[in-house]
Design goal:
Structural class of chain C: mainly alpha
Largest sheet of chain C: none
Largest interface: A-B, 36 and 29 residues
Oligomer: heterotrimer
Radius of gyration of chain B: 21 Å
Strand content of chain B: under 5%
Chains: A mainly alpha, B mainly alpha, C mainly alpha
Number of strands of chain B: 2
Order of helices and strands of chain B: HHHEEHHHHHHHHHHHHHHHHH
Largest sheet of chain B: 2 strands, antiparallel
Number of strands of chain C: 0
Chain lengths: ~130, ~500, ~140
Amino acid sequence: MSELIKKIIMNYPYFAAFIIFVIGALTVLTRSNLFKKLIGINIMESAIFLMFVAAGNIRGGAVPILSGKNPHTLYINPLPSALMLTGIVVSVSVTAFALALILRLYRSYGTTDLRRIYEMGNEVSE
Amino acid sequence: MISAITTNLPVFIIIAPLFVAFVLPTWAQRKRLVENLVISVEILMLLGTCYLASIVLLQKGIPIIYQMGGWSAPWGIELKVGSLGTFFLLTVAIVSLPVALFARGNLTHEVGGKERVARFYVLYLLLIGALGGMALTNDLFNVYVLVEVATLSCCGLVSARNHPRAAKATFTYLILATLGSCLVMGGIGFIYIVTGHLNMGFASQELGRIWQNNPRVVWMAFSFMLVGFGVKSALFPLHVWLPDAHSVAPSPASAILSGLAVKGYLICLLKVLYNVFGFYLMRVYSVHKIMVLVGMVAIISGSISALTQEDLKRRLAFSTVAQVGYIFLGFGLLNTKGLTGTLFYLASHAVIKSTLFLSAGAMLNATGKKNIKDLSGIGRKMPITTAAFTISSLGLIGIPLFSGFVGKWQLLMGSMETGSILPVSVIISGSVLCAAYLFPVIRIAYFGTAPEKDCKDPNLPQKLALIFLSAAIVFLGVIPGSFLELANRAAAELLVLR
Amino acid sequence: MKDFILKRMASIILPFICIYGFYVIFHGHVSPGGSFAGGIIVGLSFIAFSTIYGIEKGRKKLPEKVLVWTESYGTLWYGIMGMVGIVKGAPFLANKLAGVDLGIPGALNSGGLISFIGFGVGIRVASTMVTLFFTMMEEE
């Protein structure tokens, strides 16, 4: 048991990422408000970003910028952070697109509740 | 000059559609120019792909490796032009050219003014570029980025028609697809954490060496990848977005979405499963059994849901769910014949389903209705369109001499090799169900009472597109030749023990 | 908005924010940040301008046509810079192999083609941000 607790404490970023991921997934799947769904997606994505960045971290490592003045022996891995920059760009574009769609839906249905939109069915025109 | 083009051909094939797509908005007002540009890019892509395929066929299985920026494998990004890559690239090129031709004929009618047409073409070319990239890439994170580009352009294509129903379908699709890509990114993260590599070859080597140290993380990576790509490629319980999205899109868009976009995700899944994990690990974690089971459920339930639909496009969309089931089943068979059949079936389904959607779109445009019973007697008024629909239906059912048959036959042989009777019977009953939901349409179209409304065949580009695709179906069915050879070689390469 | 102080302060600060954005873009290879972050800063300076002085004035500064052109050709610029490698007989996006002088590590020119590529990406990101802002504001 103490072994497990030790493992959890050692790997706390991954557990944080797991908890955030579950919160996001639950928000996406259970809430019917469009904005809340979108926020849930963003929370899920940040959990994955956290996992990647934590994977790149090395305890005691320096910032990976080479300069002549202060040579270090240990640097953190910059690759996951760079990858997550791409991930953030993608998530920004998904958010922008989804917001535009929510505006469009709100203007034609008058609500941002997905369940009510489905109840209205196909009666709404243009 | 010539040698510079031929050595850099793999990268040109991917970036040509992408960069033309980025420049198109500045010429939005000149519609003819935009259309000609799109079609010429498609033709160039087809020619380049044929050249690459011929080289790969001549080289006997040695892939062309292209290193971006000259950086070699563990550090740089690679493009790998192997048998699988060229096979899927050829499929993309063959299907996307006629769809672009068809779009030239009817897009203004379905989508609206010049601005919207230009935007449609931007998304279309982005999707084609992303699919080409998926075929060639050998890097896990590139897979994620390309999947995301493809997803966003698919969502844009679904919402191309300015209608609230389109917005609703797009929102559902966007949320579920983003959920899927989160899972895919998580899976890639697990692989990266375990192996420290993003290059598929190196990751696979490392995984084979050290998977026993963290078996649970590998298991998590497997499940994240399966569910993520399952959502994106509309595997049965996760298919809820597909019927709405594919039926509400304009018909060229639904053709490309149902025909190619779904296949792109499947090819990515295939690469991840076989090139990264390898089939030894699949067998250790019994992933292949899960895939066969899920595939069988998808075939039966997708076909039965298709039977109950009245709307023609929705019926075709549900049929896609069933066909994805065949492909999943084939991925899980783990033998050369089954995998060859699956790959060939994937390509022929891409051709067939786009023909079905395009001809259905042409019929529905002419009548202005959506349901199957409104199409009565249309076969006499629109002979070419209905003939294309009939040919592709026969292909989808798997009648000999049409392309679906070759793939299905190999798939049957492969599933017989596993020794279990269940997959065989499911494949055969799936074909019967497929006939049950497609033949009524043909019967109504040819033998129903003639409509009063005067409808005739669509204009020349649309007719050309339909004829080209039907010819491709018959050609692939009669002389599968080098295409089947390419699929066979790709399957053999995927099943090499690493 | 009619706030006098806000307008005066904005007219002093915003040009520097814009220039700082370009600084971040061009120093992407030697310091944190890069073309995406810098592009966002450049875009934000225009977004702040149009929230403070009103959408009409912002539109006048950056008409839609300019936005479309920078968006399209900023990306094309990336492709052209990638082609430099191919023209010199090296692979796509080659930097040192294409014969570009890389200078001393840490200096501005040590990135070779990276700063040029970053410029294209940066103006594209900036114009995309501004376009998104204008679209969202005018939807209402």
